Amino acid sequence: MTLILGRCWRGLNESTAQIYGRFYTLTKKQLHGRLADILLCLANRIFKSNSFDLPLSRADLGDLTGMSTESVIRMKKEFKDDGLIGISCKRIDLLDINRLERLSEFG
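Above: the chain's sequence. Below: its structure in token form.
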């Protein structure tokens, strides 16, 4: 019984830490950091690849990052122009992971 409760608490603590991390991202980071964070999260946790087909609309990305749709469009264009990502229709290629991680961390 103690082992089961220990696993539940550990799972709860990990979930709580993830929720606090998401909250921090949405409230403290600037726009560049928010978009970099969600792109890295999608690549690392969801698709497990630096290239993926994005199943989300620009409005969905805005909702996830706490940004307007227009800001998402502008940031994606800036990221593309700066060589951070490649975009082809719904395909996203993360080209400069190190810079995206720095933006996510300090953004």
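Residues 2-106 form a domain with the Arc Repressor Mutant, subunit A fold (CATH 1.10.10.10).
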